[in-house]
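The methods section describes the discrete structure representation at length, but only in general terms. What matters is that the chain and its backbone geometry are given together, residue for residue. Nothing conveys this as quickly as seeing an actual entry. For illustration, here is how one protein appears when written out as sequence plus structure tokens:
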Amino acid sequence: MISANALSWIRLTLAIGTNNPKYKRLATMYHDISDLLKGGAREWSFCGVLSKDDTQRLGSADSAQRAQAIIDRCTALGYSVLTIDDPDYPSCLMHLYAPPAVLYVHGTLPDFEHRLSLGVVGTRSASRYGLANSYKFAYALAKYETVIISGGALGVDCASHRGALAAGGVTVCVRGCGINSRYLKDNIGMRQAIAKNGAVISEYPPDEEPRKYYFPARNRLISALSDGLLVIEAGERSGALITADASLELGRDVFALMGNNSAVNLGSNQLIKEGAAYPVTDFMDILAYYHKKVEYSVLTTDYESMFRDINAIPVKGNPERNGNRRADSASAGKASGKNEKPKAAPKPEQAAEESGADENKAQPAPQKPALTGDAKRIVDYLSAEPVHIDTLAEGVQLPVSRVLSTLTLLEMQGYVRALQGRKFVLK
């Protein structure tokens, strides 16, 4: 869908640039922005918003042609163009000091007015702990129909998008460049999947390449589109802190994953210490906070495969985790000279491959972890007969939110299985 006034607004962005508060003023002054363009230089000068330089650029001979070329490009790529005066433009963006005049969209934007949305941001050089939690939080929250919003970058962003996609949920990727830019080409497949289960969006024309100052501007959109922001592994100077500041300025809730004292957690831990962010350790901490906006529904997906692609998530500065790359081991130890270095002991799965082990041979099942506390009480109560969540909570004398959190872990560990109708059984 191309907004009716797309040509006029794109033409204005080419003259004034992006991230400019003038668009908000113009949108309130003109019921139909095309009236401004039709008014010519006299109208531009006397409207009281545009500078002399703005009017000169707006009046350049090719401004209309350049704007039309962008619309034609979007049409060819199958992108939508939403403008600030379009009824489908996300109203939450109007909370910004400088909302984008034009929003380029690949996919379908969710209904931000009636769905909980959470931004997830953090370092591009994420640890396995950071990746696992980004993925886990996004996966579980997406199961509860929370829209996951992030920036499509390496590390935390990528893990959160993939977690939401794995859960069959909706996620939105906000790019600091044009949607069609090949920046971060390793994530092209992920962005295509996002467009089918949400949207990839940008305030820049489709083929615009990234610039350093585009990313802080991009962060304000993540904050505005989100009801709350989850910060995972943010260093002392992390861009995630810019997003957190933007969220706080907009009155959004900010959460931070509790981490250790490593440098990668200095920023997020500081948010907690200053009281700027709520400390969280589990996705239920967030759902409990938004309990009036979230309708608890049963989880029916197999959690055992939840973390299967963590190692494939690209991370800045870690070539071993940048895509599904495997070391070449084609020529391993055919010679047996005296000076040959001893080979390292192969990993169990590698040894099986090299020895020609029968792939169909039954392997011992992994041992389940011992249960204590709430988990033991719940497992002891359950049986092969389905039990409703309310009956279970009453039977073990625990709050429903606490029971749901524990049940999620028990599903991941293979102890219980969720059924339709908010019922659970032992596996």
User: Anything to note?
Assistant: The first strand starts at residue 80 and ends at 83. The two ends are 47 Å apart (CA to CA).
